[in-house]
Design a protein that fits this description.
By secondary structure, this protein is α/β, with parallel strands linked by helices. It has helices spanning about 40-45, 70-85, 100-110, 145-150, 165-180, 190-195, 215-225, 240-245, 245-255; strands spanning about 5-10, 15-20, 25-30, 50-55, 90-95, 115-120, 205-210, 230-235. The chain has one domain (about 5-255): Rossmann fold. An 8-stranded mixed beta sheet has the order 1-2-4-3-5-6-7-8, with helices on both faces.
Length: about 260
């Protein structure tokens, strides 16, 4: 991985844990509900062409959680403040899963600092009827069953006994914050789908073909709601294509951004 630094910065009263690596045009990556994986290979691959900024959302990792934060709406406005705070321009914004929902909420509000938007297996919209389950209930599922839905090829379960107290605390904190932001209504904003037409930058949706959390049909609905958006399906990947197929994921991002694949 490219040389990386992980620091705490102050933004609007929030202590924000921020991973930075690489150089070049700015890229902001918003992680999914399990939290940021700083050593994930795809981040280093992206850093071959971009200055990658990867924060832990307020309430996740070592980032503080303001008392007033209780919705994705709060996160969307917070990240708009972050873009202003860092004076980021012509930004490539990538959001995965829960982070994709946050990225979409940000983009429907304001795109003036963005150059392009990539949404990887995002949640956040409602496409079925009132009783339809659009997003698998990741809170209710046993870990083994959840991994069956998240991965094309589930990895061995983690050895919790090998994790430090701090790592276990972060896992618990991430889960609690995910519930805070997405419990009710579950994993979506009822108004978001009707607002996606406001996104005014080129948009790419990337989907794992074997995603059991949100189907490719869900991805098609997302694509169809965003003017000019395209959808790329990655074979042999589930809900985390950037983890299972990092090179294929990064290749699609680079092609969309108009840069050559680094050797």
């Amino acid at each position: 991985m490219a040389s990386a630094s992980q620091t705490i910065i102050q933004v609007q009263g929030v202590d924000l844990e921020l991973l930075q690596l690489g150089s070049g045009p700015p890229l902001l990556f918003l992680h999914g509900g399990a939290g940021l994986q700083p050593s994930a290979p795809f981040l280093g691959l992206l850093a071959r062409h971009f200055r990658v900024l990867a924060p832990s959302h307020p309430g996740f990792g070592r980032s503080s959680l303001p008392d007033a934060f209780d919705s994705v709406d709060d996160l969307a406005f917070f990240y708009l403040d972050l873009l202003d705070h860092l004076d980021l321009r012509d930004l490539l914004l990538i959001g995965h899963s829960f982070g994709g929902w946050v990225a979409a909420e940000l983009a429907v509000r304001c795109c003036h600092r963005l150059s392009r938007l990539v949404l990887a297996d995002p949640i956040g919209i409602k496409i079925g009827g009132r009783e339809a389950r659009d997003v698998a209930d990741f809170f209710a599922l046993a870990p083994a069953k959840l991994d069956e839905l998240r991965y094309h090829q589930p990895p061995p379960p983690p050895e919790l006994s090998s994790l430090s107290d701090e790592e276990l605390s972060v896992m618990a904190r991430n889960g609690a914050s995910l519930a805070l932001y997405s419990w009710e209504p579950f994993a979506h904003n009822p108004k978001l789908r009707s607002r996606l037409h406001r996104i005014s930058v080129p948009t790419l949706l990337i989907w794992g073909e074997s995603d059991g959390i949100v189907s490719t049909q869900y991805g098609e609905a997302y694509r169809d709601a965003i003017p000019g958006a395209t959808l790329e399906i990655i074979p042999e990947a589930g809900h985390l294509p950037q983890i299972e197929q990092p090179e294929a994921f990064v290749d699609r991002v680079f092609e969309f951004a108009g840069v050559s694949r680094a050797v």
